[in-house]
Amino acid sequence: MSITRVLSAALLAVGLAAGPAAADSSPSPSASQDSGAPTQAGTSFRTAAEIGQGQQATASGSTGDYLYWSFPADAGQRPDVKATVKLPDAHAGQTWQLDVYDGLRRRQACQYGAQTRTAAQGAASVELACVMRTVRAWSEPWADDPLPGTYYIRLTVVDLTSADLGQPVSAEVKVDSKDIGGSAAVDGSLAEPLVPGIAVKSASDGSGSSSDDGSSSTKSAVLSSIEPDGGWSSGWWSDRWVWTGIGGVLAALAGIGGYALTRGSGRPGRVPPGV
CA dist 133 to 52, 88, 111, 175, 227, Å? Predict the structure, then answer.
């Protein structure tokens, strides 16, 4: 009976511990689409319009322009970038492409999604998508893994006739992400996220104010003003911790059960003392 009570208590503890893990593994809530989403795009990496995850940004431009946006992605997230380009009423066939770059401006591969699509003649719009690989908290210097920091979206046409060059178009871009959880956890982390200006910020005194010699302040050196909800590396808790605890509990129960099965019933009564 004692072993049954121990097993029941352990299973109850496992059930209570698995609750937070299930909540943690669900997608994080998206920000409101109306909370300050930009209505124009940048024309380069340095002028990229900043958007938060869950926001739907819009922009107007011309065919042939490069449109840039930037967004934050933290460790354990798998960003999903979607773009819709509304084309003019009359146009020939044209091909549009959606590219995603990390904080080091390395082009990131898409796990799946229509990253390049061709709009037929007269089509009203074209939709593109790129589901990135899961962002890792740490990686080898030679690897091309996505790391926490700022990511850049570049939207442009890569194939069109000269007659369509310069025609007005409008674009909508939205970034969502899924929290992958402990399955993507690694043993390590970056000292700082890969965001614009972080090297200048790390080299400064961190006071956030200008010095007497007229040097730029830390605040003006940081070029990126967006970050995930709760700050960088806010998702340190994952179901990996829970399953590690479950493994420890099961190992302890196995040891108790093995001892109970092998210890026997004690010293036989027919054996005299001292033998």
Answer: 19, 33, 6, 14, 19
| Tens-digit pLDDT profile for residues 166-203 | 999 999 999 999 888 666 667 667 778 888 876 565 55
List pLDDT tens digits, range 219-250: 444 456 777 777 777 555 666 667 778 888 88
Question: Which two three-digit tokens encode residue 176?
Answer: 């969502």
CA geometry: angle 262, 14, 28, nearest 5 deg: 150
* CA nearest to 183, candidates 243, 142, 234: 243
248-264 pLDDT, tens digit per residue, is 888 998 988 888 888 76
The model carries a pTM of 0.69
Identify the burial level of 241 via C-beta atoms within 10 angstroms of its C-beta, where 0-12 means exposed, 13-18 middle and 19 or more buried.
middle
Give CA–CA dist 166/159, Å, rounded: 13
Determine if residue 206 is left, alpha or beta; phi over 0 gives left, psi from -120 to 50 gives alpha, anything else beta: left
- Give the residue from 130, 126, 100, 94 showing the smallest Cα distance to 114: 130
Name the pairing type of β-strands 168-179 and 94-101.
Answer: unpaired
Other beta carbons within 10 angstroms of residue 34's beta carbon come to 8
